[in-house]
Design goal:
343 residues; mainly alpha; 3 domains; 3-stranded antiparallel beta sheet; globular
């Protein structure tokens, strides 16, 4: 059966969304009639909720069924961690489909705080790992690309597949260099004015991970890209391109203190069945969950810092955590038995 497509119309304060058959055989003049149960009506409303005191926030949570053992401590926590930041963690404790956000019996604010602190530690471990990987990527891309194409390859449009992406990357590089206060760039511009940007080993030090990822993905020479991926224990460059894109998004979540543990990620990593170094079984794996992200980070760490304790710290952090927590992160039941996670 063909999947439906939708159309939206506005009538006064209402929004009507109808789903239609997307069968290509349907002519434009004979558009499929929407089924009645595929029609949804949304009413636009004016947001009229007002800010309330911390004591009122706490009272609201208690009236909804959240247990608070120490109110003075709870108020201090709400004073430092916003209500809506914590809401991301207590949402799993709410009754399913509860309009009034009622909590399930036994839900406790201390449990919410423990989950928040767990996610905070997890975010720190992930961010540290991405830093290792980002620095190694910069170093190896600069080394391999420069030896073949010189110090200013990132300014040569002829070396890139998509000229539009190239121009956008170059504009971003120029902006990032111009606003940088790094001493080595200031010293460079006191001596040189041609070319307009410093050599790649200086310029790439201030370029964002996202821009670095796009430069690598858009580069035309697949042989030099393969030289980079082989240094990470990968058989082909498409895997690294996928992982760099995912890591750039993951890094942004970490940098903005966003929730990680049960998030569904919009960009999913390409997960090969076999790899040269210790790896995982990908059967029944959910690539949109955090476990997949942790796996490629742990794999790359093997070729960057052989003495890295990233895996050990992840295992220690998850020690004693319920299966409800690990399952929400996408961890399979036997994940510690995988070769990648063996200490």
């Amino acid at each position: 059966m063909s999947s439906p497509h939708s159309s939206c119309k506005k009538f006064g304060g209402f929004k009507i969304k109808s789903y239609f058959c997307s069968n290509s055989s349907c002519h434009a003049s004979q558009r499929c009639v929407p089924r009645r149960d595929f029609v949804f009506i949304y009413r636009y409303m004016k947001y009229d909720k007002q800010p309330i005191e911390l004591s009122q926030q706490l009272d609201l949570l208690q009236r909804r069924g959240l247990l608070v053992e120490d109110e003075e401590k709870a108020l201090k926590q709400l004073h430092s961690i916003s209500y809506f930041r914590l809401a991301s963690y207590w949402r799993i404790m709410e009754e399913p489909d509860s309009i009034n956000h009622r909590f399930r019996p036994g839900s406790n604010l201390d449990e919410v705080i423990r989950l928040y602190l767990f996610d905070k530690k997890l975010r720190t471990l992930v961010f540290t790992s991405i830093q290792d990987i980002e620095i190694a990527l910069r170093t190896r891309i600069i080394q391999h690309f420069s030896l073949k194409y010189g110090a200013f390859w990132f300014m040569d449009a002829g070396l890139f597949k998509d000229k539009c992406i190239f121009r956008n990357c170059l504009e971003n590089i120029q902006k990032e260099v111009s606003r940088s206060n790094e001493d080595f760039l200031k010293e460079h511009f006191t001596k040189y004015d041609t070319p307009s940007l410093p050599p790649v080993w200086k310029t790439m030090e201030v370029v964002s991970f996202g821009t670095l990822s796009k430069l690598y993905g858009n580069f035309s020479d697949t042989e030099v890209k393969k030289a980079v991926v082989r240094s990470f224990g990968l058989p082909q460059y498409l895997y690294l391109e996928s992982w760099m894109k995912c890591a750039a998004v993951l890094r942004n979540y970490c940098a903005h203190h966003a929730r990680l543990w049960n998030r569904r990620f919009p960009i999913m990593p390409h997960l090969p069945k076999k790899l040269p170094l210790a790896w995982i079984s990908i059967s029944a794996l959910r690539p949109m969950k955090l476990y997949a992200q942790l796996c490629y980070l742990a794999y790359l760490e093997q070729s960057i810092c052989p003495n890295s304790d990233f895996k050990e710290e992840i295992i220690a952090l998850l020690c004693g955590k319920s299966q409800t927590i690990t399952k929400a992160m996408g961890f399979p039941a036997n994940w510690q038995e995988e070769p990648l996670w063996q200490e």
